[in-house]
Amino acid sequence: MSSLTRKDFLKTAAAAAFLQAPRGFAADVLDSPAIRKIHRHIEQHKQEHVAKIQEFLRQPSVSSWNMGVTDCAEMLRGYFKAMGCKEAELVKTDGLPGIWAWYDGGAPRTISHYMMYDTQPFEEKRWSSPPLEARVVKMAPFEQVVMARGAINSKGPIRAFLNACESIIAVEGKLPVNIMFTCDGEEEQGSTHFHQVLAPYMDRLKMCKAHLGAGPSQNREGQVTMMLGTKGIAAAELECHGARWGRGPQKVPIHSSRKAILDSPNWRLIKALSSMVSPDGNKILIDNYHDAIVPPTEEETMLIETLISRFGEKIFASEKENVKVWANGWSAADAIRHLVFDTSLNIDGLWSGYTGPGMATILPEKATCKIDSRLVPNQNVDDQLALIRRHLDKNGFSDIEIRKIGGGDEWSRTSVKAPVVQAVLSVYKKHGIEPAIWPRAAGSSPQAQYTRAPLNLPACDGGVGHGGRAHSDDEYFVIDGNQRVSGLVECEQSIVEILYAYANWPEG
Amino acid sequence: MSSLTRKDFLKTAAAAAFLQAPRGFAADVLDSPAIRKIHRHIEQHKQEHVAKIQEFLRQPSVSSWNMGVTDCAEMLRGYFKAMGCKEAELVKTDGLPGIWAWYDGGAPRTISHYMMYDTQPFEEKRWSSPPLEARVVKMAPFEQVVMARGAINSKGPIRAFLNACESIIAVEGKLPVNIMFTCDGEEEQGSTHFHQVLAPYMDRLKMCKAHLGAGPSQNREGQVTMMLGTKGIAAAELECHGARWGRGPQKVPIHSSRKAILDSPNWRLIKALSSMVSPDGNKILIDNYHDAIVPPTEEETMLIETLISRFGEKIFASEKENVKVWANGWSAADAIRHLVFDTSLNIDGLWSGYTGPGMATILPEKATCKIDSRLVPNQNVDDQLALIRRHLDKNGFSDIEIRKIGGGDEWSRTSVKAPVVQAVLSVYKKHGIEPAIWPRAAGSSPQAQYTRAPLNLPACDGGVGHGGRAHSDDEYFVIDGNQRVSGLVECEQSIVEILYAYANWPEG
Fold this sequence. Notes:
Chain A has 16 helices and 20 strands. By secondary structure, chain A is an alpha+beta fold. Chain A starts with 5 loop residues before the first helix and ends with a helix.
């Protein structure tokens, strides 16, 4: 490195810098005759695989509408049975059911694999192809996509993973790893009850060596992204109600003329919220809110600086239409660092009284908001909520109720040095792919339930393929790729390679 | 008054203290053979009058749903024609139509009379009798009420007034006063376009000597209330939008993880609102907001102190369930004074982002609220809104938009000494009724469009009869009264007496 600056090094070496593949690994494992045979099988069965994806997408599973979720769980359980899982059962929760399934092919190594099979709702008239028909259509710049609610998030990828597994079994008789599947039917509702799905199987999950996902990980330009963790999320409703306060309207809204002589829960909630942040809304003023935060590790810093050097502002290319400036005058580089390493306090929703057209002159008896705070190491959900509670109490707002919502996902972190990450990187390396490696996603997921105590599994995702418009209309999953983006066949083939790479990777 | 304290005087003399009826007035005018004959006619035609009320109530006129309002206007116009109005026409506005009608019986005196013929919406399944069927039902403690949307607010009373007028004409050939009717089809929408109904007729309205209403004015206990004015109301939506601000999400909500690096219109609206009021939400901190307020007149003070002495806490009896304490530790007496003489700043509604069940983690691109401020002499709507604008600008919130909503009713005031008020008081006096006289209502109405320049008419309402549950389900108008409350016949008879009393009252 003598003649290179640190920046040059980062620019040129990129992800490869983080890979230490064993000598000959790519040729021995990833180019083996078995894998070539499986790849051909996938090519030959493409139409059946597309049909399987369509079948799964045509079964609705909209958790917020309670529409079809249990039927979809039964369908998925059937798939697990069909591929030869020795256990496959619906798991009751206080909400919608989850699924446990166990494929045991007698392999030396067992992985944990997560699936979410519920979807967002949809507004059918906004779609160019009906969201439950899962038609294969042209969608420029792609020749063929399957368009449906859940196409990319995540029922299309679920079925692609199962297609890949079934192809391996068809050719080789069994998978190179055993898999414990735990599946969530309430992800779009914040995975509120997902811990109840895991609880009965914790002892068996301890047999796993890694938590591995595989599926489409490319964006529209073909760039592969790898997230080595997630932020946590503390979410809650805060409500000021006249009855709890003992002031203002006690039961129902009152005529707004009464404001001249009556206290207002609306003003009170506003004062309480206002006390939590700096005048610009960007600095959290809750005592001790940042105390638990530890500085980024050297590895995290290296990964972030690599990202900044390689991509800079391009990281936010897809948000350019909707974002003009970052908070606090930050550059894109600053923004990337804060997005990954900083906590936040957001108001997701706010409501009180009359919100329709024109006027209805009332003094409402209550005011409510939803907040969420993204958490980084070593903040945790309940402690941060307790700090908010203490802040309200200290400032005289002890009557304001805090109702925790969502699953309270904790942050999750896996080292780039973990064997499962190295195995996925080796697959990318073989294909000349340099993934954008984030030390953690800015978003949240139940991943910590696998990566933190008691399971402590390293976690990683990988694969090629692309889909988009998750949560929006015209959600799609690419069947036939283009120069930049891989299609379904390559996606399933990358899943196969990832499973074999990890199965054969020397344990660290 | 030598042996009475001021308080005793107020307690015993009550409303009578404010009446200076001409000698022999009650016997000469109110007990005349003509009136006795009209009263009998009303008694004899009670069933037809009830049927007329039912007919009018069965024609929907829900302005917020745009349901039947124009058909209802046509029906009312037909009633004016039928009673012999020389003009009766629908008046186009930028919203729903109003009505102008002119009854000219050649009487020396002409009055202005306001009607609102639109109603609130309804939720039919919550009603014990269908809201558009206008059935006559028993509703304890009343033997017979007509139950319908609009029964008391205000289609029942409109038709009762017309029944009374038609009875006079049937017996006497013509009314004792000429009447200019101006009618509002958007009262429940804030009378936004009502000035457009009045504008073409302003010159003719200048012929009027008073603005007189007559109809049911009793509460459930039989107490008659008389309001000698209204407060004004400045109402507006305040909105913070990322695009106007140039910060935060510019077009659509963004993933809430972005709060770590992006400004939030929600926090900004909260900071802006918070700056407007004291920590307890009860003192308006907008510069000069109170400057225009003048102290109550001697008459207003006298009226309020009389109310306080006579009724005290009973004024708020109907609110006891919903109100535990008044703002600032005020007694009921303090509350009555502030309710009438003080301005206010209220948040009627507040909304942003996701407000449904569970979570949707977004950073919304905008936040909005509805505010209203009740105004007293000499505040006026546009000046107070301008002060709010100036406050926002001064505090760095110039991007926050203020959108005026509603009709912007100004305050209205009439002296108890006005002949039209004295005429109504003489009718009460004759029946031994002591009305609760408020210098002004805490609420607002378009009344100022008659009582302030250019018309400057004194305004007054009066009459017996009762109805209730306006804006709620099971809205009713009493047909057969009880010991406390008058029924429809007495209601219509009181309308007759009020018209004759004013027609014969010596001009001041």
